[in-house]
Design goal:
This protein has about 475 residues and is an alpha+beta fold. It has four domains: about 1-230 and about 285-365, no CATH class; about 240-275, no CATH class; about 380-425, no CATH class; about 435-465. It has helices spanning about 5-10, 50-55, 55-70, 95-100, 105-120, 170, 205-230, 245-260, 290-305, 325-350, 370-380, 385-395, 415-420, 435-460, and strands at about 5, 30-35, 45-50, 75-80, 85, 120-130, 135-140, 145-150, 155-160, 180-185, 190, 235-240, 275-280, 355-360. The strands form five sheets. The chain has a four-stranded antiparallel beta sheet. Strands 5-4-14 form a three-stranded antiparallel beta sheet. It has a three-stranded antiparallel beta sheet with strand order 7-6-11. A hairpin with a 5-residue loop joins β4 (about 75-80) and β5.
């Protein structure tokens, strides 16, 4: 380890979630937003990733993105001579795509990959190889326990942290005898969010919306306490004369025990010595809590690039078709994550140039029946798809006889053919020579006589005429 400089030492000047946080009670590194608002460090107020996930808007954005990408079919594709990528199978690479490891399905593997990236800004996947050196298993590691290491020559390694019982590293079969296992970059797939400060450290969207998440949680906690007090904002006990601190504390304690909280609603208060209770009214500012909560949720959605209506915040745009909304969501939020996942998998599995991995987007961009029918009709009429291809793509149906070729109407001509029609020839073309009409008439007469003779012979056979 003396040969390597820890990446966190080279990044010691970074702030926010990029600063190596203190160890939690579980022994792992917990991603922390150090100062979610100005002066928060003086109050020992920070925001950890698990705390931020307890806010509904953060949870909704993370789970929506992870589940939408997880439901896309992961397949192996091959590039043909025409440059078209089509699905294929390969005994070396297909098995790990169908079953990434022994305890996860492909859907849960992709979900964990994307969740780690969205929450912590980095996804670390440990590769396992068979006797041929081919990757046969993939394990998503706990990102809070993985540290990039940089050698003096610039090569990259990853320190996995101490292996503990029940942790992802143990599921991956990492050697538990080593306190800090170190593996070269060739054995780790590192997919990271945008690297604002260092190429080996991705920045989570929580870096931008941590303060909004904390504000939303604070509003909810205050509201919980308010409704726990019977929706009563509090009040003042007024004595007619001066009282000392001890007497004031005694009166306050007695009042709270007997009349505070929802369990004491409806009880009759009996007060002597001229005491009077004056309730506090809710101010106009307090009435804006719902608007404040909506603002924090909108801010979190903007940090994750999720349209608010996708997580139930606000009404969707007044489109008659839902397809444009899904396409907007894919272009703004999912496309970079999907492309990065595919590229990371291609490099991690060490695929040859003519092979690649692909997430099937048709599982996300589903259309209603009328739109599918129109799209299939237009594609067939334009000659872009054959009927069998349109049946499989838009309806999931099998091929039929005669539907394997694209069709176009006969009157369609190429531009090259049409352009030749207006080009004048270099020499005038001679008019075609017709055969003499007399010859044609003679031939027709001979044919007529032959026909008459045949009819007469047939009549003689039947005895209709004399010889």
């Amino acid at each position: 380890m003396g040969l390597f400089d820890l990446a966190r030492r080279t990044l010691s000047g970074l702030s926010g979630i990029l600063t190596p946080p203190p160890k939690s009670g579980g022994g792992g590194w917990v991603t922390t937003v150090r100062e979610p608002y100005t002066g928060a460090w003086q109050l020992n107020a920070d925001l950890k990733a698990d705390t931020a996930l307890s806010y509904s808007a953060v949870f909704a954005c993370v789970t929506l993105i992870a589940q939408d990408i997880g439901k896309l079919t992961l397949r192996l594709v091959q590039q043909d001579a025409a440059g078209i990528w089509t699905e294929t199978t390969n005994p070396a690479y297909s098995p790990v795509l169908r079953k990434p490891n022994r305890y996860q399905t492909t859907i849960k593997f992709v979900e964990q990959w994307i969740t780690s990236k969205l929450v912590h800004g980095n996804t670390y996947v440990l590769k396992a190889r068979d006797a041929r050196g081919v990757v046969n298993a993939l394990y998503v590691l706990d990102p809070t326990k993985v540290t990039p290491l940089v050698a003096p020559d610039g090569s990259v390694y990853y320190q996995l942290g101490k292996v503990e019982a029940g942790r992802p590293e143990q599921l991956a079969g990492v050697d538990a005898e080593s306190d800090t296992p170190v593996v070269p970059a060739s054995e780790i797939i590192h997919d990271l969010m945008i690297a604002l400060f260092h190429p080996l450290v991705g920045v989570s969207p929580l870096y931008a919306c941590g303060a909004s998440a904390l504000q939303g949680q604070t509003i909810q906690n205050n509201s919980s306490r308010f409704f726990a007090n019977g929706s009563n904002p509090g009040g003042i006990l007024v004595a007619p004369g001066a009282i000392d601190d001890a007497q004031a504390a005694r009166l306050k304690k007695r009042w709270e025990e007997r009349y505070a909280g929802p369990e004491n609603i409806g009880r009759v208060a009996v007060m002597g010595d001229g005491l009077k209770y004056e309730p506090l009214s809710m101010s106009a500012v307090d009435a804006q809590l719902i608007d404040q909560l909506k603002w924090t949720a909108d801010t979190i959605c903007s940090a994750y690039h999720v349209p608010p209506y996708m997580v139930g915040i606000g009404a969707p745009p007044p489109y008659a078709n839902v397809e444009p909304l899904v396409q907007l969501y894919y272009a703004a939020c999912l496309q970079s994550l999907v492309t990065s996942f595919q590229t990371s998998m291609d490099e991690g599995l060490e695929l040859p140039s003519h092979l690649g991995t692909e997430l099937l987007l048709t599982d996300l961009l589903l259309m209603d029946a009328a739109t599918r029918t129109k799209a299939a009709h237009d594609a067939i009429n334009a000659g872009a798809l054959s009927p069998n291809e349109a049946r499989r793509l838009y309806f999931g149906l099998g091929p039929v006889a005669g539907g394997g070729s694209p069709y176009l109407q006969q009157q369609y001509y190429s531009l090259a053919a049409l352009s030749q029609r207006d080009v004048p020839s270099s020499a005038p073309t001679a008019a075609p020579q017709l055969p003499p009409a007399a010859d044609d008439d003679a031939e027709d007469a001979d044919d007529f006589e032959a026909a008459c003779l045949a009819v007469r012979r047939a009549a003689l056979v039947e005895g209709l005429y004399d010889a």
